[in-house]
Each structure stands twice: as structure tokens, then as C-alpha cells.
Amino acid sequence: MNGDNITSIEEKKEEIKNAATEEKKLTDPTEQVKRLASGELLLENPIKSGAQSYDKISYDFRKITGWDYADAMDSDSKNSNLFWITAKQALSLFAVAASKATPGMSSMDVKEQIGMGDTMNAVRIATAFFIASTRAGNMRISNA
To answer: What does the chain look like in DSSP terms, one character per residue?
Structure first.
């Protein structure tokens, strides 16, 4: 075996290792939570909060407290399923995450001013985070 073959084998091993790491990031709930926890949403329609107008808002679900979460979930009293989130709850959760990560942004301004297209994205983001967090949380619960 010559040196070129050894290098090629080592490169293949590294490639396989990297692919496995990427697959884990996509399928592991804990990794999904990390990936989905924060970001930025570019808005189709700007939102005005205070004296400032925002054409993009940052969000960070990791900054939400338990009380913030409970308030957001209470925004839709018609939902009696603890394992699912409604669009109203998801928008409320996203609005809090945005207010925590965007200086000067009010969660009420997000809920009252966000456009329909932006709402669809905000709800999708919050729902994906909710599902991943639920799955990751289930892994930390012991029934013993």
C-alpha cells in the first residue's frame, strides 16, 4: 500500500465522521434545540416599537423564563392538549423570544403588528422549537 492510498483512506474516514456528526445535528433533539433556539427573522412588513422601526428581529427562546412560557401558553385557553401548541400560543412564544433578543422590542408590538407572511414564519419557528424542546426534555425525565 502506498502513501496516497493511506491518505485517501484517512480522508474517507474523516468524511464519514463529519457526515455522522452532521446527521446527529439534524436528528438529535438536543442538537435541534441548540440549532433552533435563536436566530433572526427578516420581516416583509416592518414593526414599529417605541420610536424605532424594525425590518428584522432577533429571537432567542433560551432567554424565556418559565413565567414567560406559562403566559404564552395561556394565550389560547381553548387548547387543552399539553403536547401541542396552537398558532396563537406559538406567536405569543415567538413574540416573547423576540422581545428578549431585540433591544427596544415589545412582545405586544410583535403580536399586534406582525404581518401574515411574517406570522407564518414566526409560528413555524416557535412550533419547531417547541417540538424539539419537548423531545429533548423527554430524554431528561426519569420515571424511576
So the answer is: --HHHHHHHHHHHHHHHHHHHHHHHHH-HHHHHHHHSEEEEEEEEEEEETTEEEEEEEEEGGG--HHHHHHHHTT-TT---TT---HHHHHHHHHHHHHHHSTT--HHHHHHH--HHHHHHHHHHHHHHHHHHHHHHHTT----
